[in-house]
From TrEMBL, chains A, B:
The lineage of its organism: Bacteria, Bacillati, Bacillota, Clostridia, Peptostreptococcales. Residues 201-204 are annotated as: Aspartate. It is found in: Cytoplasm. CDD domains: AspRS_core (cd00777), EcAspRS_like_N (cd04317). It comes from Hornefia butyriciproducens. GO terms for cellular component: cytoplasm. GO terms for molecular function: aspartate-tRNA ligase activity; ATP binding; catalytic activity, acting on a protein; nucleic acid binding; transferase activity. The keyword ATP-binding applies. This is Aspartate--tRNA ligase. It is an enzyme of class 6 (ligase). The gene is aspS. Keywords: Aminoacyl-tRNA synthetase, ATP-binding, Cytoplasm, Ligase, Nucleotide-binding, Protein biosynthesis. One of its GO terms (biological process) is aspartyl-tRNA aminoacylation. Its EC number is 6.1.1.12.
Length: 589, 589
């Protein structure tokens, strides 16, 4: 092995207080240039960039080699730190330079196909193909380090709280529930398959039955879904479970964790406890079970406002008469900002949510302008405006349809408009809990009742009697943690009673035979004494993305797949030898 | 959700100093018995067992419920700690009992199919099927916690040393190198497959090219091999890599880590630096590249001893004339312990290593008894015995054959005999490095040269000139860490030069086309400036097993597979729907 210069500092660390020190650095040449008999090299490692200077006092042989340096050459430098004549305020190390006395060349480099600069706007697929170059960007290394830091603080905290990190298996049983599984053919058991886990849910419940008491794992999970919307085939969960707890215990533990996390990695003190909204309240006020509370624009229900309740305006009338809702939001000061054309665009934007139109009302200094002037008198508009406390200059937008459509449309709209108005402050972190989710929802396609979370969620004790009579009104001991309108995690208290679990399967239309085939081992385990237990899981990728202020989870993963689930660095997936398939007792179709 | 007693203590924590305290406990009924109007319940959680006592002062309703308790019922207890009348010295909590005032029953339990006791010797498959019951054993929970502790200390240490934990992908490219891959059919890319990683080797090298500088990961790895010898389809590595380092840097970092690990989890101070043996020395002295140095019995070469060199004894003669070796070990005081019959058994035991026989020589008070008295005079036996410094009562065992057979046989034999003689002290931890491995070895089947570690290992600088002339004599910058005769980990300095890497592929008979197809992305990456780098990986399962004093890695994993690679808890692998296969563009053969 060739000689290695033993590093004394990282490039990004050097400051004025290092002046006079002899240092050894290793890194990549970010830039080399010659100026007035001197050679300047910007040397980069993961911590930053520092300027290296060669003058004619170094041996000619070294000077010549310094002159031959090109971008991305890998070198080691010995030298002395000194104050820089012309300071560079854009670099943290910009007050100093390293006056080289020796240099070693570890490796040459061809011209890279992408620029190693944070603001390089290379095509995504090019960035993924040359990920090892993309990762040299300071921002990408910062993101990897930040992710590491979050994982570390997470493990520290839960370790202190008596949690045990347990590795659950990656080769598990396929259950045709939920998302699509990735399958792994078994060679030893021909014709049979493992699945890669969508979550460690069943195993963590078994750990509770096994007495592990407090479990945590930062676990790889897999879903073979279409990769729209910044999803990845493999993703990472912070997964945990606790025995002998109720919802308050689980929530309290998480608040302690998140407080610590924000303090340690963000240097931000957040207040606990976080606000709790029931699912019902979240929908009514924000039109969403992931409310963003950094701004107002809360939804108001207009069904019972006399002007609306008695209206002959057909759009409202039809909605009300078919059991739907009329709800609106008030954009303070929005009247000036949104022209008629803008409102048309907003109307377009809510169409994917099912809304066929929006009613708008502008509160003016004197009276109103609105899309429904023909149908409502000024007094009636007063009545509506009063619900919102609307003042002159405000814009009211109203949707009327089935409740779900109204909620989804307005829920989207308020955040969309807040974004347009610049109200989404990246440095503000509003955490809240949404609790008391409905236990079930109606599958719109099949009309069947399905579990809103998963079939192991415990119904609220007081709602259990309704399981038989009115299951859609049963609420669950389920909770989501929401940050700025994004679901960061969620969990529930689980059923630990075999009979109640069997009843849930029955309500979900899962036959006894099917439930035994799929989850028999869990029901069997419950026979032998299961403790009450509950837990929660965070999406780590999304959490890191949110806290790092990034907009794609790909920027917080080392080697993500592209939109076609391919790893462009290593060119996976690929074709394999026929012999391999033969050994696995499978063939291609 | 039903009421939960909020725990104040764990069962195993209570001691005399808690006497008088009101406590709340949750756990499983380990035993219930009635004695003289009192009910005694042994309550168990993961920390241990404590005695709960009910007398008639509790409400009758509670007393009755306590009376109905059976094994593995899950309960909560409120009560007062008091000194126990008849202390139980076998329990850490045996000085106290908890005098119950209230009780809650969380769940009943059927009679479990295995005993929840550390010394339950249930059949392995039964233990795996009811793993959630097996895990209730205190020993199993202790093992899980111990494993957690090792992982935690590992992460703490390397975090302090500036390492970043980076998650490398689980869905990777299949390379028909090394062991058999687990394959994952791609739905989005029909006819193509991912592999599950056998190790993060290539990705960690790419991270170094990407400037990550110091990488660690506790990573799941997969090998579809036959499961003899306590292997598992999925296993866990502590995997790391460093840039700008030589072998001494990597080794020094590990010694710091292992010192810290032994201190923190074993409460043992180990001395650093560890001894380093070259591979050659390890073979010559111990007949193994994983020497156990807790005892003597070192190998001695007899080829050049006059009595042997000139012998007409055909067994030795043939070995020497065909380029083989005559080597032996001396078992101090072994003569009495091993009868003629015992030696016959030892001769049987080395047959799997290729040895066709063993020569034995007993040093007596006066002269020798041996299996070769006919061929060697007493003076000649003196000459042989002198090599070992044999004294009266010692037993010399000699093998002669090809060097590999001699090393393997004697290497096995010395440890086997040490085991029989009770010399393998579980509380002694002899750590050492084996370095300077041969770069290549000859594949006995094909006669081709193959890599001893892997094709990315850097040859020793001074041996590079021999790559062309005498590759089998080239040594590698590779190192294994050995604990008590078991390889706990290993690594190497990697090649970071594209041309040298290409040359290695050439020597290994990998065509340019093949190397580009398999490892092209690594060669491509090396084009753009790769730093010198090296690393190491530990087998975590084996490490935990060794330090926990267990004899199977299954006892330090939560949900291991059985010998047929099945998960008996969840019954994986299993058959899947035809539709699932169709979506994946595969069918069964």
């Amino acid at each position: 092995m060739s000689e290695i210069f033993k590093r004394t500092h990282m490039c990004g660390e050097l400051r004025m207080e290092n002046a006079g020190e002899t240092v050894v650095l290793n890194g990549w040449v970010s830039r080399q240039r010659r100026l007035g008999g001197l050679i300047f090299v910007d040397l980069r490692d993961k911590t930053g960039i520092v300027q290296i200077t060669f003058d004619e006092s170094v041996p000619k042989e070294i000077f010549d080699r310094a002159q031959a340096l090109r971008g991305e050459y890998v070198i080691g430098i010995k030298g002395t730190v000194r104050e820089r004549a012309s300071r560079n305020p854009e670099l943290p190390t910009g007050d100093v330079e390293v006056f080289a006395s020796d240099m070693i060349l570890y490796a040459e480099a061809a011209t890279p196909p992408i620029y190693i600069r944070d603001d390089d706007n290379a095509d995504d697929n090019l960035r993924l193909k040359y990920r090892y170059l993309d990762l040299r960007k300071l921002k990408m290394q910062r993101n990897l380090t930040f992710r590491h830091r979050i994982a570390k603080v997470t493990r520290d905290y839960f370790d202190e709280q008596g949690f045990t990190e347990v590795e659950t298996p990656m080769l598990v049983r396929s259950t045709p529930e939920g998302a699509r599984d990735y399958l792994v053919p078994s060679r030893v058991n021909p014709g049979q398959f493992y699945a890669l886990p969508q979550s460690p849910q069943l195993f963590k419940q078994l750990l509770m039955v096994g007495g592990t008491d407090r479990y945590i794992q930062i676990a790889k999970c897999f879903r073979d879904e279409d990769l729209r919307a910044d999803r990845q085939p493999e993703f990472t969960q912070i997964d945990m479970e606790m025995s002998f707890v109720d919802m308050d215990d689980v929530i309290g533990m998480q608040e302690g964790y998140l407080k610590r996390l924000f303090r340690d990695v963000m240097d931000i003190e957040i207040e606990t406890p976080f606000p709790r909204l029931t699912w019902q309240e979240a929908m009514e006020r924000y039109g969403s079970d992931k409310p963003d509370t950094r701004f107002g624009f809360e939804l108001k229900k207009l069904n019972d406002v006399k002007a609306v309740a008695e209206t002959e305006f057909m759009v409202f009338r039809n909605a009300l008469d078919s059991g739907g809702d009329v709800r609106g939001i008030c954009i303070e000061g929005g009247s000036k900002q949104f022209s008629r054309k803008d409102i048309d665009k907003l109307t377009e934007a809510v169409k994917p949510y099912g809304a066929r139109g929006l009613v708008w009302i502008r509160r003016e200094e004197n009276g109103y302008k609105s899309s429904v002037n023909k149908f409502f008198s000024e007094e009636q508009l007063d009545e509506i405006a009063a619900v919102f406390g609307a003042a002159a200059g405000d814009l009211i937008l109203i949707a009327s349809d089935r409740p779900k459509v109204v909620f989804d449309s307005l829920g989207f709209l308020r955040r969309h408009i807040a974004g347009m108005m610049g109200l989404l402050d990246d440095r503000q972190f509003n955490l809240l809990w949404v609790v008391d989710f409905p236990m079930f929802e109606k599958d719109e396609e099949t009309g069947r009742v399905k579990a809103m979370h998963h079939p192991f969620t415990h119904p609220k004790a007081e709602d259990i009697p309704m399981l038989d009579t009115d299951p859609l009104r049963v609420r669950a001991d389920a909770y989501d943690i929401v940050l700025n309108g994004v679901e960061m995690g969620g969990g529930s208290i689980r059923i630990h009673d075999r009979k109640l679990q069997a009843k849930m399967f029955e309500i979900l239309g899962i036959s006894e035979e099917e439930s035994i085939q799929k989850f028999g081992f869990l029901l069997e385990a419950f026979k032998y004494g299961a403790p009450p237990h509950g837990g929660l899981a965070y999406g780590l990728d999304r959490m890191v993305m949110l806290l790092a202020g990034e907009h794609s989870i790909r920027d917080v993963m080392a080697f993500p797949k592209n939109q076609n689930a391919q790893c462009l660095v290593s060119d996976a997936p690929n074709t394999v030898d026929e012999e391999q398939l033969e050994e696995l007792s499978i063939r291609l179709r």
